[in-house]
């Protein structure tokens, strides 16, 4: 089999099954696992899949630049935001992560809801400028432009001084095997710090992130209270997720 044919077969397998198991594909094609792993490395280098132990998973579209992500799954993000807002109790303190889904949450907060919002995202903070009842605290630091959030030692130090009732966490990948992942190691560490400052953490998971994976692990499913998602509850991946973590359905 030509290299181009193997490549097409791998991508079709990923599209059809939602994953690639290197051992299984090697047996199907009568090739060595080393050959398949080499093909997977090349495809991963082109951004066409995310390598994981034993094979590969779909790469998350949420790893695109911030401007592009603002145009991805906008309806799904609004559904997730509406469901997430219902988790914010009147008078509570919520840490709101950065990213486009978190921005949708900020926009969806009812104007009569009195709460305190802590965020390391200048875009989220700006979205709440006109909110009449929300008190907003901004954590400063070096701007990580991909997600438009502050990060680094200064942000960590500021975060250590706060406590909250709820953290609404943004990730780029949610997969029952690969877990909760994101595309940058420092950002993953910052998310863990913020989760450690809240009594409960819920994950914001619009459907394009469900079943996908990114390189860096954020938290285990046992460390979050639930995943808020508009993904089809009857899909295989959501059923498998529901065995690991509470699913909060975000439906129209």
Features:
252 residues, Arc Repressor Mutant, subunit A, seven-stranded parallel β-sheet, 10 helices, elongated
- For the record, the CATH class of the largest domain is Alpha Beta
Basic shape: elongated
Low-pLDDT ranges: none
Give the terminus-to-terminus CA distance. 47 Å
Output mean pLDDT.
Answer: 91
Count helical runs.
10
Evaluate the radius of gyration. Answer: 19 Å
The number of domains: 2
* Coarse structural class: alpha/beta
Order of strands across the biggest sheet? 6-5-4-9-12-14-15
- CATH third-tier fold name of the largest domain: Rossmann fold
Care to count the β-strands? 15
The ordered H/E elements are HEHHEEHHEHEHEEEHEEEHEEEHE
Residue fraction in strands: 15-25%
- Do you know the CATH architecture of the largest domain? 3-Layer(aba) Sandwich
Report the biggest beta sheet as strand number plus sense, adding barrel if it closes: 7 strands, parallel
Helical proportion, percent range:
25-40%
């Amino acid at each position: 089999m030509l290299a181009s044919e193997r490549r097409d077969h791998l991508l079709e397998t990923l599209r059809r099954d939602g994953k690639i198991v290197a051992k299984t594909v090697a047996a199907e094609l009568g090739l060595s696992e080393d050959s398949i792993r080499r093909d997977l490395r090349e495809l991963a280098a082109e951004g066409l899949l995310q390598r994981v132990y034993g094979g590969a998973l779909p790469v998350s579209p949420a790893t695109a630049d911030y401007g592009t992500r603002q145009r991805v799954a906008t309806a799904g993000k609004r559904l997730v935001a509406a469901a997430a807002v219902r988790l914010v109790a009147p008078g509570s303190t919520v840490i709101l992560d950065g990213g486009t889904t978190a921005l949708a949450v900020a926009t969806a907060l009812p104007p009569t809801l009195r709460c305190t919002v802590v965020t390391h995202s200048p875009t989220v903070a700006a979205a709440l400028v006109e909110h009449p009842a929300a008190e907003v605290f901004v954590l400063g630091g070096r701007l990580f432009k991909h997600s438009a959030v502050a990060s680094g030692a200064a942000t960590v130090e500021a975060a250590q001084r706060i406590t909250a009732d709820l953290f609404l966490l943004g990730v780029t990948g949610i997969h029952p095997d690969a877990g909760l992942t994101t595309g940058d190691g420092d950002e993953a560490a910052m998310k863990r710090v913020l989760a450690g400052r809240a009594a409960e953490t819920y994950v914001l998971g619009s459907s394009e992130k469900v079943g996908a994976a990114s390189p860096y692990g954020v938290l285990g499913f046992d460390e979050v209270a639930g995943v808020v998602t508009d993904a089809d509850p009857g899909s295989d991946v959501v059923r498998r997720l529901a065995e690991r973590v509470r699913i909060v359905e975000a439906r129209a």
